[in-house]
Specification:
Elements: H1 2-17, H2 19-22, H3 26-43, H4 45-49, H5 57-62, H6 69-76, H7 89-127, H8 132-135, H9 143-160, H10 163-177, H11 181-200, H12 207-215, H13 220-245, H14 259-262, H15 267-291, H16 295-313, H17 319-325, H18 327-331, H19 336-355, H20 357-368, H21 373-383, H22 389-399, E1 401-402, E2 410-411, H23 416-427, H24 437-446, H25 450-477
Parallel strand pairs: 1-2
Helix pairs in contact: 1-3, 3-19, 7-10, 7-15, 7-16, 7-19, 9-10, 9-11, 9-13, 10-11, 10-24, 11-13, 11-23, 11-24, 11-25, 12-22, 12-23, 13-23, 13-25, 15-16, 19-24, 20-22, 21-23, 23-25
Length: 478
Amino acid sequence: MYTLMVVVFVIGYLFIALEHNFLIDKAASALVTGITLWTILVFGADVIYGVDYGWSITEFVGSSGDFIKPLREYLEGLNVAKLSADDSTGSVLNHFIGHELQHHVVEIAEILFFLLGAMTIVELIDAHGGFSVITDKITTTKKSTLIWILSLLTFFFSAALDNLTTAIVMAALLKKLIEDKEDLWLFAGVTVIAANSGGAWSPIGDVTTIMLWIGGQITAANIVTNVFVPSLISLLVPLIILSFTLKGNVKKPSTEGLDEDQEITTDKERKLVFFLGVISLLQVPVYKTLTHLPPFMGVLLGLGMMWTLTEILHRRKSARAKSKLSVANVLRKIDTSSIMFFLGILLAVGSLQSAGHLTQMAAGLEKAFNGNIYAIDIVIGLLSSIVDNVPLVAGAMGMYEIGPLQTGVSYPVDHEFWEFLAYTAGTGGSCLIIGSAAGVAIMGLVKINFVWYIKRISLLALAGYLAGGAYYYVIHGM
């Protein structure tokens, strides 16, 4: 059963990667894969966790079996005396799996609510024509120049917000600036690299960096100081390569038919909604820092404020105008299939985490590379393009303690292991389109093909990733 879970995950991954060949939407494949893995976990729990259903509760709780850390902690927290006589080893194990599923669902829901809130804010700005504030300022159509402008904008914007929010905003901008599908996909692919690179050096720029910062493994000043240059290199290398190959100009989308929509909002209203939207997104990390509540709360607060203000702003307009500019209308434009895809893939990864696959992987890396922290972090980064980087980093945080330097056991705060892990986990996901939240968002919003991304973007991302890693190693590891 343990091996079967890996096989099912790989098969599901292939269906996601080759959705255009199988003619099955990736969201459907992701949902089937995620639910199937949890079903296998339930029915094969005794084999996966090495448990005998014939054990009594006392034998089960007191067993010295090689359980994964979450199960061991769950058993240690059980009060055997309070368990019912009718309880069995199987029922306790099922309770544990249910507990794990609830834990993952809470984390996934936070991401999905964040995604929904941010996408709605972006769509609301778009409905008001607010992005014209930026697009009107970008007059160049030369591909090599435009890609530098947009990528650097994404890089620094990602550090101030986070890579997911920035990716959503930039996807909307790109669709306003580029008409040709091939050019749009290329720019969107580089946007994934830029968003992930920008998020890696900021304590609030990426989920994994936030985890390490809140967990106490890194400090904000140190991560900015030591990871900024490698992160910048991971973007500059792909941009330099593209500068030699990108020729010609991009074709902007036709504005024909849009004038009528522009008439329902004034220039002042477009600017107001744009800046309200930007402020709503920028206040999210501030809100999180002040309240210690999840980021989705800050996004939903911003959405609620924009919803209220736009209702007031358009209260005297015609029913037709209000219907086009209302949040209720904007919500119908949200790409629900992308949300379902995200749900499915995160459920699938969560099952592998609960079954112990990721913990075993982390332990295997420690043994395979004999404790070489740079090699371990590089591989974790590459694996994060296949398996979500959040559980991988969580596994590493669980394997190693914060304390006096003991290789393979503990590392002090701001040690190279933690800093380099922030870089690799943040930027490594760019090597595949579904390797990061930013990539998944771009994939859903711009409809990038998985295989196309591998052919056109993956090697560029890998080159930048290895170049930035090499710089860090030369400066800190030699």
